[in-house]
Write a structure and sequence with these properties.
By secondary structure, the chain is mostly helical. The chain has one domain: Ribosomal protein S20 (Methane Monooxygenase Hydroxylase, Chain G, domain 1). The mean pLDDT is about 95.
């Protein structure tokens, strides 16, 4: 437990930020999984739309500091390569 008032405040702030970051991360993971599921089903048009949504969510996560820029670029690249493999 925190010993000072400022430590209590930092604990409250870090908990609130932790919950916010978790919600962003789970949204990004859900959109990526949706995109991969559509690719596996062979629905290329729907997967392309899902890829745009996932890329947008990754960019927003980078902007808010939840995901590193290179990590987001790598994930977008791999999703795009997977989409191009779909027939």
């Amino acid at each position: 437990m925190p010993n000072t008032k400022s430590a209590e405040r930092r604990m409250r702030n870090s908990q609130r930020k932790h919950l916010h970051n978790r919600s962003i991360e789970s949204r990004v993971r859900r959109l990526q999984r949706n995109c991969r599921d559509l690719m596996a089903a062979g629905k290329k048009d729907e997967a392309a739309k899902a890829l745009r949504d996932a890329a947008s969510a990754l960019d927003k996560a980078v902007k808010s500091g939840v995901v590193h820029k290179t990590t987001a670029n790598r994930k977008k690249s791999r999703l795009t390569l997977a989409l191009n493999q779909v027939k």
